[in-house]
Amino acid sequence: MRLIILDDTAAVADWAARFVLQRVTEFAPTAERRFVLGLPTGGTPLGMYKRLIQFYKEGRISFKYVTTFNMDEYVGLPRDHPESYHYYMWNEFFKHIDIEPSQAHVLDGNAPNLVDECTRFEKLIKEAGGVNLFIGGIGPDGHIAFNEPGSSLVSRTRAKTLAYDTLEANKRFFGNDISKVPRQALTVGVGTVMDAKEVMILITGSHKALALAKAVEEGVNHMWTVSAFQQHPQALFVCDEDATLELRVKTVKYFKVRDVILI
Fold this sequence. Notes:
alpha/beta
């Protein structure tokens, strides 16, 4: 596991975008050999998406031969609802780049059979050859996607009933009315993300400092699902200084000395 510690959220966004640029460029995808990218939503990756759009406009990267799989989606929200993750991805990223719409996969929270939809999603990932790079963010409680505390660390894509803390945290996106927050979501499992060849987790802000400390300094624990990535052979945590506030000084020093920015 690597831990990259940067000054602020802008630096994290830039580093992450350059890392994606590097990986896609090195892979040199073609129509017969596509690069497969796992993507998150939320506030944390927005800066990364903006930088990738900039790289695309500058002619430094193309997504023509990139296939994407998103982490999660609310159940019951129309695709064009401003808080659906389908809407988020198309407005914040996909419509600004040259990705083929058929290659941008987002779970369908309105599918008539949610179990079948989750099975279909896992099958699509397998048929694509697996994910080359899965990018994720975490919540203050260490959850990744909607794999909340107590989730199985070998879980697959499935429907989840959201915890009250998640509903409370997300009500700000629904006019501060908790009754409007969907009670269920579809999410990739921890095991789904663990299957990726490489994983990059973005962590910013002091409110996520405890989760980072649990993930880095303590053992694997299903109450902190992000800790599972200690066991991934190619896991990378990219964080800002604020997110390191709960880490021991010697831990911060160790990773700062060991991991110089490579890009």
